[in-house]
Specification:
The protein is mainly alpha-helical. The chain is built from 14 helices and no strands.
C-alpha cells in the first residue's frame, strides 16, 4: 500500500508541475487571440462594406446608358472598393445628396480628359505620378497627347492590386513591341515573387490569429516603393534597386520563419501536454481502483 501511495504522490507532483507550465504558456497564446481581435477584426480590411450612394443608385438605374451602368459592378470588383475608395474620392461631389451629387460647389470634377488622367490619379498616387512623368510613357503623353496613361494599363473602374502580371504582350503591343517590356518584367520578377510569398505567409499567420503589424507595415512600404519603380519604365534603375529590396525582404522572411517555428513549437508542446494529461488521468484512474480494491 505504501508503494502505491508513493507512486500516487510522484504522479501528483508531475501533475502540479505540468499545471504550472500550462499557466505560463496559456497567457502567451491568449496574447495572440487578444491581438487578433483588437488589430484585425476591428480594421477596415476585416470586411466593412460601404453604404450605397447617390452615385451608385443613379449609375445602377435602368435609365442610365448601358456602358455607364456597368461602372458600379466594375468598381465593386476593384482594389479601390476593397480599400473603401469610393466614387467621390476620385470624382468629387456629394454622394449623400442626390440633388447635389454632381454639384461643382461640392467639389464634383467628373471624368478627366485623356491627357488629364495622370494628374487625376496622381492626387493620391503622388510618387507614381512623379516617376510616370519622367518615363517614356509620360513624356509621350505630354509631347504628343497620345502616349499611354493610367487607364491604358490599369483600366478605369475595375482597377486591381498592382503586380507584374499587368505587363504582358497583348497590352504592351497596343503601342510598341513587347521586347523592352519583357526585359523589365524579368528584372521585376524575383522581387515581386518574394513579396507575394511574404504576403501569403502573413495572411496564413493572420488566419491563425497572429498579427505581425510591423512586418505588415514594412512589406506595404516596400511594395509601394517597388511598384512605383514600375512606372519609370527604366530597367537599369530597377536592377540598381534590386539589392536594397532583397535585403529588406530577406529580413522579413527570417522574421516570419521564426514566427512559424514558434507556432509549431507551441502546437507540439500543447499536444504533448494533452497526451500527458490523458496518461496521468488513466494512471490515476487505475491507482484509484487499485486503492479501493
Amino acid at each position: 500500500m505504501g508503494s502505491i501511495n508513493n507512486l500516487g504522490g510522484v504522479l501528483l507532483r508531475y501533475l502540479f508541475s505540468a499545471l504550472i507550465i500550462v499557466a505560463l504558456v496559456l497567457p502567451a497564446s491568449a496574447d495572440y487571440k487578444e491581438i487578433f481581435e483588437k488589430e484585425f477584426l476591428n480594421q477596415p480590411w476585416g470586411g466593412e462594406m460601404l453604404a450605397e450612394s447617390a452615385c451608385i443608385e443613379c449609375h445602377s438605374s435602368e435609365t442610365m446608358d448601358a456602358d455607364l451602368q456597368k461602372i458600379p459592378q466594375e468598381w465593386k470588383t476593384s482594389w479601390h472598393f476593397q480599400n473603401n475608395v469610393s466614387c467621390h474620392d476620385c470624382h468629387g461631389g456629394d454622394p449623400s445628396d442626390a440633388g447635389m451629387s454632381m454639384s461643382h460647389q461640392r467639389g464634383f470634377t467628373g471624368s478627366p480628359k485623356y491627357a488629364e488622367v495622370p494628374d487625376f490619379c496622381g492626387k493620391c498616387h503622388i510618387g507614381i505620378l512623379s516617376n510616370y512623368l519622367q518615363s517614356g510613357h509620360g513624356k509621350a503623353l505630354l509631347f504628343s497627347g497620345t502616349g499611354p496613361n493610367c487607364v491604358t494599363c490599369h483600366g478605369s473602374h475595375n482597377i486591381q492590386k498592382a503586380n507584374i502580371d499587368i505587363i504582358y504582350g497583348r497590352r504592351c503591343t497596343q503601342c510598341h513591341s513587347y521586347e523592352r517590356a519583357k526585359v523589365i518584367k524579368q528584372a521585376l520578377f524575383l522581387t515581386e515573387t518574394k513579396m507575394q510569398a511574404i504576403e501569403d505567409n502573413l495572411r496564413k499567420l493572420k488566419a491563425d490569429g497572429v498579427i505581425l503589424s510591423e512586418e505588415e507595415k514594412t512589406l506595404f512600404r516596400t511594395q509601394a516603393e517597388f511598384r512605383t519603380l514600375f512606372h519609370t519604365v527604366d530597367v537599369s534603375l530597377v536592377n540598381e534597386s534590386t539589392d536594397k529590396f532583397a535585403k529588406i525582404l530577406t529580413q522579413l522572411e527570417e522574421e516570419i520563419k521564426a514566427t512559424f517555428d514558434e507556432l509549431r513549437f507551441r502546437r507540439n508542446f500543447s499536444a504533448f501536454l494533452s497526451l500527458l494529461f490523458i496518461v496521468i488521468g488513466v494512471v490515476l484512474s487505475i491507482l484509484s481502483k487499485t486503492y479501493k480494491d
